[in-house]
Amino acid sequence: MKRRHLVQLAGAALAAPVFTAQAQSFPVKPIKLIIAFPAGGPTDITMRSLADGASKILGQTVIIENKPGAGGTLPAQTLQISAPDGYTLAQIPLGVFRLPYTTKINWDPIKDISYVLNVTGYAFGLVVPAESPIKNWAQFVAWAKANPGKLSFGSTGTLTSPHLTMELIAQKLGIELLHVPYKGSADLMQAIMGGQIMAAADSTGFAPLVESGKLRVLNTWGDQRLAKFPDAPTLKELGLDMVQNSPFGIGAPRGTPADVVKKLHDAFKTVMDQDSYKAALARYDMVPIYMSSEGYGKFAQETFVREKALVEKLGLAKAP
Hints:
single chain; alpha/beta; D-Maltodextrin-Binding Protein, domain 2; 9-stranded mixed sheet; about 325 residues; 2 domains
């Protein structure tokens, strides 16, 4: 027994340096970071800035892969079939925490993702074309009440934060809206500029079109007015006791070695403090929102519980 025990200890001692050496050498090839929305939108542009900075720190290219659709949950689902080696990462939007309540899945958003860090969050609002006869929020509500189910609004996808927030607003006000989902901000902005929808609920990907005079902001959804749109009231100011901001970060497959997660965390955290990344965010009235690996994991657990209540309140939960 004693000899066998010594052999086991010796084997463990030999294995430990090998694991450590692997972690120290990471990365030895390009890293793929999958994001949930199409190229050209605010998520794509800001995450590319983050990836470019991290590439320089890690010594390997961080490649952005766009995987839109399914309410922003496809990147997280891809993690479930990816090796836990740090070479496949994913953006984790809030829609990921709603998924088990609306869709039958065989994985757990809390247990089956290694949370690396939170990096930023969306600022949201509602816009209409500049030439729209709807000039403010009161007119929007009045038109919706006079034309039940005919006021069309687009969002970045079914069960995304913009979609659910508008559904909750409609429920509170007793109005019926027509929801039209798109794959992301770029597609949504094309639709509203093309006259396919009357309004768009989105993150501030609409900022360039507002600044060029093509769209008008009816409201924004944060706790305070956005610096870029100081004339647009918040939902709270309009009598709706609601604040919607949507932090998102980066996850890796379950079982990714802690040393690898730390190396990724440290690289992305360094970029978050750089002026180039802050400037990319500022273009869309976004700011760095840092959460450590531990803090982000805790946030995920709390959000998972909160989103269940929202989905049930809107009557969108899947049948048992």
